[in-house]
Every structure is written in structure tokens, then in C-alpha cells.
Design goal:
By secondary structure, the chain is an alpha/beta fold. The protein is built from 13 helices and 13 strands. The chain folds into four domains: about 100 residues, Nucleic acid-binding proteins (OB fold (Dihydrolipoamide Acetyltransferase, E2P)), CATH 2.40.50.140; about 140 residues, Rossmann fold, CATH 3.40.50.261; about 55 residues; about 40 residues, no CATH class. Strands 1-2-3-5-4 form a five-stranded mixed beta barrel. A five-stranded parallel β-sheet has the order 7-6-8-9-10, with helices on both faces. It has a three-stranded antiparallel β-sheet with strand order 11-12-13, with no helix packed on it. The N and C termini lie far apart (about 205 Å). Heterooligomer composed of large and small subunits. It is found in: Cytoplasm.
């Protein structure tokens, strides 16, 4: 009993708080005390659900801290997060009363050291290369004489000034459209990608698109390593030139572009020809054409001279006279041949005529024979059996003919036939 009384009195002397009250006081103290803090550690248990928020644990050898990156901050990350990566985070502590836990709400993330940044860059490069975004077969040649050129860059930077200065010196009459975009810091990658997409929608279409900026550190140029920019360049319908930094600076945009220029000034040299070089080329071509034409004319003249020196062209009347003489000779040979042929034919006809005369019935008649024919049918009578009494016949003599009527028919000179 005395013990219970003592306990009750001790309890009433102290202020009793609920869990919510204590948690609220802790929340106020922690969040006000650690409103901005830098924490370094190894990233583990990384996850990124469809909401776009990033959840992970930051740990070292003896402790760990839960952390979150809200989607608005996550989209501005310069590299991909993965388990095992050493990072440095800036953020503030946040107490979550329902669980009585606290977490680091991250506002900025950096790889721990340049080596980590380069590692992140290498991983992204391997990923995009595996998709074929850097393949050589995708590269397109730049037009030799572009009329409309686009440049995605900062309108106040040195890159556009250097580009325009070289462009004006090398080639005039080119229209240049500038698509303003931040080229450094948060949100720069999104603006560059949007500028590339806008350039592809311009009408009339651009002939060449340049994307770039002047030199800087790896962190300054990081937006040209971000996936959004690389994909925008790789999918551009316009032949694209990457002109980022100086000669030693290499970004993923350089691998995705059709042509890499070491500097914005060199981009102008790669995009347009030199007016002086073109003039010299035209003069050289003109000289070669004139020389070729002169050589051809000389060859034609020599050929004409050769033809003119031939007898047929030098003394054409000689050819006519020779031809006339050949015609006369041919005419004489033809006449001789015709006369000879006529004599041969005449002799042949005489021979044939003699043979024909010897076989002619008229010659036979001349020797005292005659031919008898039926007067009506003109059929030659060769047998007495062809005749009958009263039949009219014609007897052809050597000179003249006799028409008579058959009075009597005999089979032979000694046999007579009865007449009726």
C-alpha cells in the first residue's frame, strides 16, 4: 500500500505525453535541426515504381538511412541510380509519424567523385549502344550546300556567336534558325530535347541541325550525356551535328549525332563549304572543260586535215573521170558480150530450125504425102476404119487442100467394102 501511494505521487509530478505529442515534438526538432544536410553513403535496395518516386537505403559500414527522391527531382537526375553506387545526397530529414520513422528527402544527388560519374556515364553508354543508337549505319551525310540550318543552344552563349562568325566568313546566303535552350544545369536536357523536336517540325524543313555549346567541365556538359538528349538526336529526321565543348570533350550526343564537330566553330566548317574553295573548284573545272574542248577541237581539225589530204577530196574531178572511164569500159564489154550472145543464140536457132524442118509434116507432104482429117472434128485420119461412106474429109497436100466425100471404104487396096 505505501508503495502504490508513492508511485502515484511520482507519476503526477511529471507531465505525461501521448505518443503523438512526443512524435510531433521530435518531428519539429529533427526537421528544424536537419533542414539541409549532406550525407554520403552506398546506395542499396533501390526501387522506382510507376509513380516515378525513387526509394532506397543509404548505408555505410555501421548504419543505414532510408531515403526518398520525389518524382519532380528524379526526372532531373544526370545519371541512373543503381545498387552499389557511392553517392552524396543533399536533402532534409522528414519524420513519418504513423510509423515513428524518419527518412532523408533528397533534393540533389551526385556521384561520389569523378570516377563514379564516369561510371554512370559508361553504363548509360553501354545501354544505348546495345539499342543500336550509335551504329554507323544510322549515320547520314550532310548536304553539300544547305539553305536552312537550325542550332539548338543558348542564344547568349559563345557557341552561337562563334558559329555565326565562321559561317558568315565561309558561305553567305544561309538562313539560320536558333532554338533557345539552357545548356547547363537542371532542366537543360529537357529543353535541349524539346528544341530538337521543335526543329524537326519546322516548315519548310531544315537541311541541317546543330546541337551544342562551348566548353566546360564534365558536370557542365552533363546534359548532353542525358538519355533524353541522346534519344532526341538519334531519332531526328534532320541530319544532326553535335558540337559540344572543345576537342577533348566527348559526350554521348557526339556518338548519337550523324557528324561530330570538335567545336561550334568547326561545326560551321563542317556544315557549309568554303566560298573560296568552291570558287577555286569551279575555276579548276572550267579550266579542265576548256582544255578538254580545245583538245577535242584540235583532234577534229587534224582529222579534217587528214581527210582533206586524201586524193578523193583533194582532186574530186579525178575520181569522176576515173568513174566515167570505168563506165565506158563496162559499156563496151557489155555491148561485146551482147553481140557474142546474139550470135550464139542465132546459130543455135538455125540448128534447131533445121532439125524442126526435117521433122515437120509439111516437109513430108512435099515428098508426095498428104494428111487427111475429118472435116467436122479436124481429127487426123490414120485408118480406114475411121471413115464411113458419105463422110466429108479434108486432104492436106504440100500445096493446098482437097475436100471430098467418102464414096467407098476399103480395108486395104485389094479389099472393098459393100456400099449401101
Amino acid at each position: 500500500m505505501p508503495t502504490d501511494s508513492l508511485t502515484s505521487e511520482s507519476t503526477t509530478d511529471e507531465k505525461i505525453m501521448s505518443v503523438s505529442q512526443l512524435t510531433a515534438q521530435l518531428k519539429g526538432v529533427i526537421e528544424s535541426r536537419f533542414s539541409s544536410v549532406w550525407v554520403a553513403g552506398e546506395l542499396s535496395n533501390f526501387s522506382r515504381p510507376q509513380s516515378g518516386h525513387c526509394y532506397f537505403t543509404l548505408k555505410d559500414d555501421t548504419a543505414q538511412l532510408r531515403a526518398v527522391i520525389w518524382r519532380g527531382t528524379a526526372v532531373r537526375l544526370k545519371f541512373e541510380l543503381a545498387d552499389g553506387l557511392e553517392i552524396v545526397c543533399r536533402g532534409h530529414l522528414d519524420v513519418y509519424p504513423p510509423r515513428g520513422s524518419y527518412q532523408l528527402v533528397v533534393d540533389e544527388v551526385q556521384p561520389r567523385g569523378v570516377g563514379a560519374l564516369e561510371l554512370a556515364l559508361r553504363k548509360l553508354r553501354e545501354k544505348l549502344a546495345a539499342e543500336g543508337l550509335f551504329d554507323a549505319y544510322r549515320k547520314r551525310a550532310l548536304p553539300k550546300f544547305p539553305r536552312r540550318i537550325g542550332f539548338v543552344t543558348s542564344p547568349t552563349g559563345a557557341a552561337i556567336r562563334d558559329f555565326l562568325e565562321v559561317l558568315q566568313r565561309r558561305w553567305r546566303g544561309v538562313e539560320v534558325l536558333i532554338f533557345p535552350a539552357r545548356v547547363q544545369g537542371g532542366g537543360a536536357a529537357a529543353e535541349i530535347a524539346a528544341g530538337i523536336q521543335l526543329a524537326n517540325r519546322v516548315e519548310p524543313a531544315l537541311d541541317v541541325l546543330v546541337v551544342g555549346r562551348g566548353g566546360g567541365s564534365l558536370e557542365d556538359l552533363w546534359c548532353f550525356n542525358e538519355e533524353a538528349v541522346v534519344r532526341a538526336i538519334a531519332t531526328s529526321n534532320i541530319p544532326t551535328v553535335s558540337a559540344v565543348g572543345h576537342e577533348i570533350d566527348v559526350t554521348l550526343a557526339d556518338f548519337a549525332a550523324d557528324v561530330r564537330a570538335l567545336t561550334p566553330s568547326e561545326a560551321a566548317e563542317r556544315v557549309v563549304p568554303s566560298a573560296q574553295d568552291v570558287t577555286q573548284m569551279v575555276q579548276s573545272i572550267s579550266t579542265r572543260i576548256e582544255r578538254a574542248f580545245s583538245n577535242q577541237v584540235t583532234a577534229w581539225r587534224q582529222r579534217l586535215d587528214s581527210l582533206a589530204s586524201r586524193p578523193a577530196l583533194a582532186r574530186p574531178e579525178d575520181g569522176i573521170q576515173n568513174l566515167s572511164r570505168q563506165v565506158d569500159e563496162c559499156s563496151l564489154r557489155l555491148q561485146t558480150a551482147i553481140k557474142s550472145s546474139l550470135r550464139d543464140q542465132e546459130s543455135h536457132l538455125t540448128t534447131l530450125s533445121g532439125k524442126l524442118s526435117s521433122l515437120s509434116p509439111l516437109a513430108v507432104l512435099g515428098r508426095g504425102y498428104s494428111l487427111t482429117q475429118d472435116q467436122a472434128t479436124k481429127r487426123l485420119i490414120t485408118s480406114a476404119k475411121q471413115l464411113k461412106k458419105g463422110q466429108a474429109v479434108v486432104t492436106r497436100l504440100a500445096e493446098g487442100a482437097v475436100i471430098s466425100t467418102v464414096n467407098e471404104v476399103k480395108d486395104s487396096l485389094t479389099t472393098s467394102s459393100n456400099s449401101k
